[in-house]
C-alpha cells in the first residue's frame, strides 16, 4: 500500500532509474520505483554480456547487472512496484501518478522520469529469436564479440554508418545493407564509409530474414529486382533508429525533434511543453533525454544527477 505522499517517485528502471533510486534512498527519501511491465530493467536485460561498465573487469550479464543495481537500491530503502504508469499529472506542488494495475493514484513531491528508449526493429524472421545471439542494436556494446568475423549492418543513416565504421575495428568485413539507391547519411559520413575497404555497401537491398539456429549464420537480402541473396555473417547490427518512451508525457513536457524529453542543462530539470520553463519537482535522466550517447554508464550518471537535483528541490521547498 502506498503512503499518502511520496518524496520521490521514479518512473522507469534501467541504469538511470536504479542509480537514481540508490542515491535517493541513501539520502533517506524512500523512493518508489515503478519499473514498467514491458521491459523492467531496461534494454540491458536483453544484453547477454556487458564489458564496458566500470567495475566489472571480466564483464557482466546485462540482466545480472540490472538485478544487482535493483538490489543495491532496495538495500538502502527504495521500494519497487512492478507496474505500468497509465497517466501522470506533472504540474502543481504534488504530482499525480496513476498506475495501470494499482489500486489508487500516487502523489509525489518529485518525479524522476527514466523511461528510456526502444530500438526500432526490422520485424524480420529470426530477429527476436536470435536477439543476443548475434543480433544486436549497439555496436559499442557488442562489437568486440565479433573480432575477425563478417557482420551485417542494416540502415543507411548517420547512425548506421557510425556503427559500420566502429565495427571495422573488430570485424574483417562489414556489409552495410540499405534499401535505397544511396545512403541517407551526411555527405562526410557517407564518404568515409564508401572509402573504407572493410565496408561493402549493398544498396537497394532489404534484410528479409535472419538465419541461424542457436546463433546468427547469415541474412537473406531481397533486392529491388532479381532473386534473393544469402549473405553469410556471424553478426547483424540493426541501426534503423530508436524511439524514446515519451508518449506518457505528451502535452506536458518539451520534446526535441526525435521525441526525446528536453531538460534545462546542465541540470536534469524537465522543461514544460513550452520549452521555456521547468516543471518544478520533475526531473529526467537516461536514454529518454539522450539522443547521442545511449550508453548505460551515461544513463547511470544522469540518474545520480537527477536524484541529487530532486534532493536539492526537496530541501529548497522545506526550507532546509
Automatic annotation (TrEMBL):
Pfam families: Pyr_redox_2 (PF07992). Keywords: Disulfide bond, FAD, Flavoprotein, Oxidoreductase, Redox-active center. It catalyses: [thioredoxin]-dithiol + NADP(+) = [thioredoxin]-disulfide + NADPH + H(+). Signal peptide: none annotated. Its EC number is 1.8.1.9. It is an enzyme of class 1 (oxidoreductase). The keyword Cytoplasm does not apply. Residues 7-303 form the FAD/NAD(P)-binding domain. GO terms for molecular function: thioredoxin-disulfide reductase (NADPH) activity. The keyword Flavoprotein applies. This is Thioredoxin reductase. It comes from Oerskovia enterophila.
Amino acid at each position: 500500500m502506498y503512503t499518502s505522499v511520496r518524496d520521490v517517485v521514479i518512473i522507469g528502471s534501467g541504469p538511470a532509474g536504479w542509480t537514481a533510486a540508490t542515491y535517493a534512498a541513501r539520502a533517506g527519501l524512500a523512493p518508489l520505483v515503478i519499473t514498467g511491465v514491458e521491459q523492467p530493467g531496461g534494454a540491458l536485460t536483453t544484453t547477454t554480456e556487458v564489458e564496458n561498465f566500470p567495475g566489472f573487469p571480466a564483464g557482466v550479464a546485462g540482466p545480472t547487472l540490472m538485478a544487482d543495481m535493483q538490489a543495491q537500491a532496495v538495500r538502502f530503502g527504495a521500494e519497487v512496484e512492478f507496474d505500468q504508469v497509465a497517466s501522470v499529472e506533472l504540474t502543481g506542488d504534488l504530482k499525480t501518478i496513476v498506475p495501470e494495475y494499482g489500486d489508487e493514484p500516487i502523489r509525489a513531491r518529485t518525479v524522476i522520469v527514466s523511461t528510456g528508449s526502444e530500438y526500432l526493429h526490422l520485424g524480420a524472421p529470426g530477429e527476436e529469436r536470435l536477439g543476443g545471439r548475434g543480433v544486436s542494436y549497439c555496436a559499442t556494446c557488442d562489437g568486440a564479440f565479433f573480432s575477425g568475423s563478417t557482420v551485417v549492418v542494416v540502415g543507411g543513416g548517420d547512425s548506421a554508418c557510425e556503427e559500420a565504421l566502429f565495427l571495422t575495428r573488430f570485424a574483417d568485413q562489414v556489409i552495410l545493407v540499405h534499401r535505397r539507391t544511396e545512403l541517407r547519411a551526411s555527405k562526410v559520413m557517407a564518404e568515409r564509409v564508401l572509402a573504407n575497404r572493410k565496408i561493402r555497401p549493398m544498396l537497394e537491398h532489404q534484410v528479409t530474414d535472419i538465419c541461424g539456429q542457436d546463433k546468427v549464420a547469415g541474412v537473406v537480402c531481397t533486392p529491388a529486382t532479381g532473386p534473393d541473396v544469402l549473405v553469410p555473417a556471424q553478426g547483424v547490427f540493426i541501426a534503423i533508429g530508436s524511439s524514446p518512451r515519451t508518449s506518457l508525457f505528451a502535452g506536458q513536457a518539451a520534446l526535441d525533434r526525435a521525441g526525446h524529453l528536453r531538460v534545462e542543462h546542465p541540470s536534469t530539470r524537465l522543461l514544460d511543453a513550452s520549452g521555456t520553463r521547468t516543471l518544478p519537482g520533475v526531473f529526467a535522466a537516461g536514454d529518454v533525454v539522450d539522443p547521442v550517447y545511449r550508453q548505460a554508464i551515461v544513463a547511470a550518471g544522469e540518474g545520480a544527477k537527477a536524484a541529487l537535483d530532486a534532493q536539492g528541490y526537496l530541501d529548497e521547498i522545506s526550507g532546509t
